[in-house]
Every structure is written in C-alpha cells, then in structure tokens.
Write a structure and sequence with these properties.
Number of domains: 2
CATH topology of the largest domain: NADH Oxidase
Number of helices: 8
Bound molecules: flavin mononucleotide
Strand order of the largest sheet: 5-6-7-9-8
CATH superfamily of the largest domain: NADH Oxidase
Radius of gyration: 18 Å
Distance between the termini: 23 Å
Structural class: alpha+beta
Helix content: 25-40%
Number of strands: 9
Length: 265
Amino acid sequence: MDIPFSRWYLAIEKRRSRRHFDPNLPIAPEALAALEKVCNQFAPFPHARSRLVTESTESVFKGIIGSYGKVKDAQAFIAFIGNMDDPFVQEEVGYTGEGIILEATALGLNTCWVGGFFRPEIVASLIEVSNKERVLAVTPVGYAREFESWEEKLMTGFGRSHNRLPLSKLVRGLPWEKWPDWVNICLEAARLAPSAANRQPWSFDVQDDGIIVFVRTRGPVFNVSKRLDCGIAMLHLEVAAVDSGCKGEWEFLPSPQVAKFKIRS
Ligand SMILES: Cc1cc2nc3c(=O)[nH]c(=O)nc-3n(C[C@H](O)[C@H](O)[C@H](O)COP(=O)(O)O)c2cc1C
C-alpha cells in the first residue's frame, strides 16, 4: 500500500493517547471498514502484521493497580503481531503499528499503544497466532469520552505525559546550521512519537546522506522493547521527510543503532 504521507503527517500532531472511550458512540461502519483495510494492506515488512478485533475488548486490558489505569469501554482493538525469528521484529512492529494508529487518528478515532497492561493469551484466543509469533502490543480503538476522567488525567500527569524532550538533547552529528529544512521537520515529527511510559528512548545522528536512529541506553524497560518505540519514531521521521519532499530508504543496523534513513539522491 502507498503511504498517504500528508494525511499521516497531519495526524502526528493530532494523535494523543486516550484510555477511556464513549460506550454510547459506536464506531462508524465506514471508519471500521477503512481501518480493517489499512490493517490488512499496510504491511511493509513480511514479519509484522496487524489485526482488527471487534469483540471482548474489556477482557484484553489489565489495570496498572486493580482496575486503575485500565482501558475502558473501547469498541474494538488492534493487535500488533511479530514473528520473533526476525531480528528486527520490534522496529518493524513499531513502524507498522504506528501507521495504523495514524490512519485511525485521521479517521477521527482515538487509540493508545498498550505494551504492558494487556493479556496476550486472550488476544491469541481471538486471532490466529503461530508459534513463532507474539502479540507485542495492542491498541484500543473508539471515540474517546469528550472530557478526560480524573483517572485519565492522573494517568497522564495532567497532560505532562504528552511533553517531549527538546531536540537539543536528542541530536548529534551535522551542526543544525547546516541542516536542510527537511531535517528539522522530520526530527520534530520523530520527537512527537509516542513511547512506553513516554521514555523517548531515541536519539538521532544527522549525516550528509541521511539520519541514523539510535537507542539511548538510560531509562527503565517496562517489559516493552525500546526498539519498538524507535520503530514508531522511524515511521514519523519518514512520513515527515517524504511530506517535505525528501524520499529515502531504511537500512536496519545493529544495536545500539536502530536504522539509517538514507536519502535517495
Ligand atoms: C510501545 C508502547 C507501549 C505503551 N504501553 C502502555 C501501557 O501499557 N499502558 C498505558 O496506559 N499506556 C501505554 N503507552 C502509552 C504511553 O504512555 C504514551 O504514548 C506516552 O505517555 C506519550 O503520551 P501520548 O501518546 O499522549 O503522546 C504505551 C506507548 C507505547 C508507544
């Protein structure tokens, strides 16, 4: 499938995680059909896939403590699945899943990546998962309640979880005075990527012929791979780069590097 770059670029700023949904607002059938289509068609890597499920959402999500922090009243969820034989499965699932999340955002739906607080065994009972595959994350899908509940506000530290580190803390390489315009635009988009517990585990090395994404080593693990977060940032970076006229290809790299976006000359 061709990536709708401008549509997804606009969705980057609009997206934010929502955990409590409006139980009285069913997902519009056209939106559900469009989402199912993108889940089936946006599969740029053979070992990463997404499945939309419209049943049993309550039993899939766990609270952080008791029912505190639990996703509530979602109408559907999407499972992000990877084949663990692939050495880059985490990055590929992050990249693929974020495409689906941005399309959901563009369709007016709300989402929240959930990597820790869900029950993979229940997801696996609802969809086919081979013995080489794992459900690495899920997202609820639906229309969020108009106003955030107190619990949601507490969960996000009253909006602080949407804050991001400045680029000055994340970037090395070519000095910024020498950056072409597209570099700033795509690093800003990568900076806005969501990550588990908002840990933002990425850094970027700007070079003459492209940008390398690295994993920063500090910060907690939360049972979710930092490389999955970096895959999400890769999708943001590429969407913004192409939207501003700079095409390129990804080359996966060994740890602590993640991948290089090599510009096409
Ligand atoms: C891979 C991944 C896993 C996440 N897991 C959870 C989770 O288990 N529970 C949860 O409530 N939020 C989870 N989140 C959501 C993050 O907390 C959220 O994206 C981050 O705080 C940034 O906020 P924003 O998405 O509103 O920009 C996860 C996010 C990512 C990217």
